[in-house]
Amino acid sequence: MSTGEDLLRAIAVGPDDHALRLVYADWLEETGDETLAAFIRVNVAIEGQGGDQLADPALRAQHSALYSASQEGITLPKWARRWGLLNPWNGIVTAVEMSASSFLRYGRRLDQYLPGVRLVHLSAAKKSWQKVAAHEGLRMVRELPLMETETWPALRESPLADHLERLSSWYVPALGAARTPWPRLREISLSKSEVDELFLHWLSDAVQTPALERVRLRDLSWSYEWTEFLGRLLPRKSLLELHLGDLWAGDTYLWLPEGGSSSVRVLSLNNVHMYENDYRRFLLDAEWPNLEQLLLWNSDIPGSVIHDILRSDAFPRLWRLGLKNNPIDMPTTAALCDLPGFARLRALSWWQLNLDDEAGLALARSPNAANLEVLDLAGNRFTDAVAHALIASPYLNNLRRLHIYESFSSEAEKLLRSRFPVL
Fold first, then answer.
1. 382 touches 356 (CB < 8 A)
2. What is the pLDDT of residue 1?
3. 157 vs 37, 132, 142, 151, CA distance in Å?
4. What is the pLDDT of residue 180?
5. What's the rounded Cα separation, in Å, for the pair 394 and 367?
6. pLDDT for position 289
């Protein structure tokens, strides 16, 4: 590979290939674009430190400055507009917006004009979706968001849709079954869409595709059929992330399948409400041996379940725990600091738990906090005593980021900033 276009095409196929992106950065530097080259190298360095959550604050600051500077050097054909601008995590324009007429005109040469683009958002396409779905340019696209009623009926019958890797919908009614499961599907993201039984059957077949890695379901009317779908999804060895949010089931609480997953690394439940026994069955009476990040936000999860998660040996790789806005009582929160699972954590969020000094002092005094690199204490009600305890703690020397918004007095904030990188 000798040209930037060739490298961009290769990166579009393997966006997570760090070595390939560094080769592209070298090419950019050799051809005079030192700013974008530096930006891409900083991105790779951040990922090497464990991603945005754990990256060094100085590196993150450098990333922000280079991102702004890199935007200025990006040019596109006049018929394509950046959608989301430069991708902030790989330094490449991967998403564009264009009219349906422009796609029909230039789509066959999309790879020539815009190598590296994966997502195309089409505007003013309502009357053109049948033509778009039959257009050869669709082979160049990896994601075409379903944002209009007419999109899915056209795409689901198109053999060219087999090249799509991400299915995403937003406010789309009446999603029915497609012609066949998309063999290259890597991610499913559904939000505020009306899903019928035919679509669920198709989706159940689609989860058998070998490349599927991420599933995001948000603001959907839950049913037993969805639970069955998750039951078929969780055993998939390729599945890395599962995000469930704002799910509702009429007047009843949700019921999720048991069994866990041997491959999932990130699990998030946001505004997902279940009875305590169902939380235990889903999280504790199951196997999650490779789970690294568990984000439990706004879900009324009992403190006893969190306590047993950190006491259990079933989560040996868990390093990030998010507990935003859950009704966990003070003694339970303080007791978490003494559990063996707490000692493995590198990132912890106690955002909006309405905690007072009992929990804050327990954290500052716990040897189990020694591995923490990111700590979010925003939205609590600590006195200056907790600030002094955190500053004096010998166990928080690895802390790289501390969030304290609306938790301390202005004087305490100044003291904390003298020791920690506060955001």
1. yes
2. 43
3. 42, 12, 17, 11
4. 80
5. 8
6. 93
List phi, psi (to 5°) of 122. -95, 130
Q: Which residues lie closer than 8 Å to 138 by C-beta, 6 or more apart?
A: 107, 132, 144, 158, 160, 161, 163, 164
C-alpha separations of 367 from 60, 82, 393, 395 in Å: 28, 48, 9, 6
197-206 helix and 224-233 helix, angle to the nearest 10 degrees: 10
User: For the chain, how long is the longest CA-to-CA vector?
Assistant: 67
β-pair type (214-218, 241-245):
parallel
Positive or negative: CA dihedral 270, 271, 273, 276 = positive
CA distances from 191 to 138, 245, 246, 265, 344 (A): 23, 9, 9, 22, 34
Q: Which tokens is 26 given? A: 């070298």
Give the closest residue to 268 by CA, choosing from 216, 226, 311, 220: 216
Tell me, what's the pLDDT at 124? 65
**What letter does residue 145 receive in the DSSP assignment?**
-
pTM of the model: 0.87
DSSP string, 190-209: EES--B-HHHHHHHHHHTTS
Neighbouring C-alpha atoms within 13 Å toward the C-beta of 253: 13
Predicted confidence at residue 85, as pLDDT, reads: 54
pLDDT of residue 249: 60
Quickly count: other Cβ atoms within 10 Å of residue 40's Cβ.
Answer: 26
Tell me if 293 sits within 8 A of 267, measured CB to CB. yes
The whole-angstrom distance between residue 187's C-alpha and the CA centroid of its chain comes to 11
Separation CA 222–CA 228 (nearest Å): 11
| Residue 406: predicted pLDDT | 92
Q: How far apart are CA 220 and CA 343, in angstroms?
A: 36
Q: Which of 157, 147, 148 is nearest to 138 (CA)?
A: 157
Q: How far is CA 121 from the centre of its chain?
A: 20
Provide the token pair at 34.
Answer: 């030192």
Measured between alpha carbons, how far is 377 from 414 in angstroms, rounded to an integer? 15
* Residues of the chain falling short of pLDDT 70: 1-2, 73, 81-90, 124, 173-174, 248-254
Distance in angstroms (rounded) separating the CA atoms of residues 125 and 237: 37
